[in-house]
Each structure stands twice: as structure tokens, then as C-alpha cells.
Amino acid sequence: MRQGYSLPGKALRLSRFMGDGRTLVVAMDHGLFGMGEGLERIVKVVDEVVEGGADAVMVSLGVARKIASKIGGRASLILTIPFDPRYVELAARIGADAVKTTYFGEVPVPEERINQFAEVAEACEDWQMPYMAEVVPVDERGKTIYEFEPVMKAARFGAEVGGDLVKTAYVGPVESYRRIVEACPAPIVVMGGERMEKPTDILRVIKEAVEAGAAGGAIGRNIWQFENPGKMAEALSKIIHEEIGLEEAERIVKA
């Protein structure tokens, strides 16, 4: 976690969901883009993943209203917002601990979108609201590009434009991703991406990302589309915060 903010607001909010410099965020904002299977009973799933050890849940405004009683005092709220700085004030008013914008597109990022990132970042400074900039390179078909150079550029852009955290893809091996982490001035949380068939796949991604120096993960369907979301959240949380091995993590998931 970065230190030395001139005002305490960002540091205090960040400490609530990454006090040790690491975090597990469960991304549950997918209903904005077409609800995925597993989120039909979102209040129940939120309760399960928080009980399992999630540090924060990432949701839209409408869902935030529904889950407030489930996460109060147990986990942080990260609000997914459009590229509109007015939503930063709204996030502060409802008690969110961070906001996140979503960008899946070409890298380098077009100037118009850069300006939109900058407006949100400026509002976050005004309101002392941590800003998670999600920057994910995609090809002409909209598919995520899992390649070293595009991901490195995406991560660095997210920090340069004012992100206190950057959410982007993981690209192995560990040695390569460590270079991406070192080149990014802000902590990186890796995305889960498309649904993985085996629990060990997402466990391995997070294990390798943390070994490379990432601050953790912001994982969606690879938690709540598994049979027991709470157990998956527990296993990932212990990889991130306690650095348990893959075998132990697999035992937790299968318990």
C-alpha cells in the first residue's frame, strides 16, 4: 500500500480492505453487462464469500443497497461506477471504501478515454476515495490479450492516470509478471477472466500472481460460479494473506 497521502481519507479506506497490503475482492458487478449464472441470489452469495474471507465485494449501486446489511462491519464495499466523476461523491455518501471503473479496449488508450479516467481520478482525490482503475487490453474481437507487452502497458497506464489500485490480467510465468508489477507504481490486483473449469486453475493464477508481487485478486465468476463460493473465497484469501500452498488450498475447496 502506498503511504504519505496529504489527507488521511484514502489511507483509512484502503486499510479497511488491504491492511496488510493485500486483498481479495469478489467482483459481483456483472449484472451491469448481462447477469452471469451464479448471481441469481446475490445476497446469499455475498454472505457466503464474506464469511469465507473476502476483504471486499465489488458491486453496482443497486446491489449495494441490497447487501449493505450483509457486509457492514465484515467487508468493504467497492462501487463500480461509470466514467462520471459525480459518482465518486455518491460513493462517498453511501459509505464505499473505493470505486472502480472498467476499461476493456485498445492499449495505448485513446485520448478521449484518458480524459475520462483523469476526471474520475481527480474527483477521487477531492473525496479521498481510493480508485481502482481496471485496464484490460483486448483484440479486435473483444477478447482479452494475455501477452506481456500489452498487459504491462495496461498496468502502467492505470497507475499513470491516477489509479490507487490497478486491475488487469495475469500473464505467466512468475518471473515475467514480476517485471510488470515492478514497472507499475500502483498495487496490482489480477482479474479472474473467463470461467475456469478446474478450481486448481484459478488457485494457481492467484498463487503465481502473489509470488510475482501482485496485491491479490479481484475475482468474479471463478468464485461465485463454483459449487461452494465460500470455500473458494476462503482458499484464495489464505493464498493471498497467509501464502498457503496449492495443495492446502485445494483441500479447502474440496472440504
- Can you tell me the CATH class? Alpha Beta
Tell me the series of helices and strands, N- to C-terminal.
HEHEHEHEHEHEHEHEHHH
Estimated share of beta-strand residues: 15-25%
Largest beta-sheet characterization: 8 strands, parallel, barrel
Task: Set down the secondary structure blueprint.
Elements lengths: L8 H10 L4 E5 L14 H11 L3 E4 L1 H11 L4 E5 L5 H9 L3 E8 L5 H17 L3 E7 L10 H13 L4 E4 L5 H10 L4 E4 L7 H13 L4 E4 L1 H4 L4 H14 L3 H9 L1
Helix pairs in contact: 2-3, 2-10, 4-5, 6-7, 8-10, 8-11, 10-11
Describe what this molecule looks like in 3D:
By secondary structure, the chain is an alpha/beta fold. The protein is 47% helix and 16% strand. It has helices at 9-18, 42-52, 61-71, 86-94, 111-127, 148-160, 174-183, 199-211, 221-224, 229-242, 246-254, and strands spanning 23-27, 56-59, 76-80, 98-105, 131-137, 165-168, 188-191, 216-219. It is globular.
What features would you highlight for this structure?
single chain; 255 residues; alpha/beta; TIM Barrel; 8 strands; 16% strand; disordered N terminus
Short description:
This protein has 255 residues and is an alpha/beta fold. It contains eleven helices and eight strands. α8 runs parallel beside α10 and α10 packs antiparallel against α11.
